[in-house]
Specification:
By secondary structure, the protein is α/β, with parallel strands linked by helices. It has 10 helices and 10 strands.
Length: 279
């Protein structure tokens, strides 16, 4: 069993550190996921559009870790958002993942046509009611969209909003809204696509603890209330390093220094998908 702390929200118990698979091919995952599971990761994040659910599925089937100990997230792509198509797409994802359910099912981007988000949210809730997903949530929703989704689904239905979050992107207003609704913020790109690795402020902080800049950046995230992080890597050494963040703590002064870094550097904002961002 992994000793990574878990985050709770409306019945969810999600490991605070996971392994992201964006931009990782099936072939890379065949090599990396056995290493990742051996290190101790139990939270694996994928998505329909990544094209690698089958690679994750092989790891689930052959990795030697009981399914009950794994936390698997996938996301429905925007072209499968009608309720009927959403449910069909989730069943296809489960076939690729070689599992009867996912622990967490997300809407990947808030890109809705016609009648808006409510029919898609109905489909998402149906996936949970039918047992295809144990928990449901959002991804890349801004504040107004998050509020709309919570109002439609009810106060206890949604578990998380997965968004870009790292030391260079503040997300303070969104974090306050998520906290008010007891939703977890799941941070993708938590290392700012390796942008943190040469940050002198983070290196100076890490030198106090014999830790790298990347480890400081991840530790900063998970020390916050209701924040999880899902770094991705193709390097087993980096996967181990990213995991080795639970044997030190940052001081108030460290947090102050990190808080003073630039907080408006958004790296993922595709024009065809992005909402009006709040930060």
């Amino acid at each position: 069993m992994s000793d990574v702390p878990t985050l709770a929200a409306h019945g969810l118990n999600m490991p605070a550190l996971g392994f992201g698979t964006w931009e990782l091919s099936d072939e890379v995952l065949d090599r990396m996921l056995p290493e990742v599971l051996a290190i101790g990761y139990r939270h694996i994040d994928t998505a329909q559009i990544y094209g690698n659910e089958a690679g994750v599925g092989r790891a689930i089937a052959t990795g030697g870790v009981p399914r009950s100990e794994l936390f698997i997230t996938t996301k429905v792509w925007v072209d499968r958002y009608t309720p009927e198509d959403l449910l069909a797409s989730v069943r296809e994802s489960l076939d690729r993942l070689q599992t009867d359910y996912v622990d967490l099912l997300l809407l990947h981007w808030p890109k809705f046509e016609g009648q808006g988000m409510n029919p898609t949210l109905e489909g998402l809730m149906r996936a949970k009611a039918d047992g295809l997903a144990h928990h449901i949530g959002l991804s890349n929703f801004n504040i107004d969209q998050t509020e709309q989704a919570v109002a439609f689904c009810g106060p206890d239905a949604l578990a998380t909003n997965q968004v870009e979050y790292h030391v260079y992107l503040g997300q303070e207003r969104l974090r306050r809204v998520l906290a008010r609704h007891n939703l977890i913020l799941t941070a993708y790109m938590p290392l700012a696509k390796a942008g943190v690795v040469n940050d002198t402020v983070l290196w100076e902080i890490g030198a106090q603890y014999d830790k790298s800049a990347a480890q400081v950046a991840l530790r900063w995230l998970i020390e916050q209330d209701r924040v999880a992080a899902i770094p991705a890597t193709t390097n087993p050494h980096h996967a181990q390093s990213n995991f080795d963040i639970f044997n030190f703590s940052l001081s108030a002064e460290d947090h102050q220094k990190i808080g003073a870094l630039e907080k408006h550097r958004r790296l993922c904002a595709p024009a065809s998908l992005s909402p009006d961002w709040d930060d």
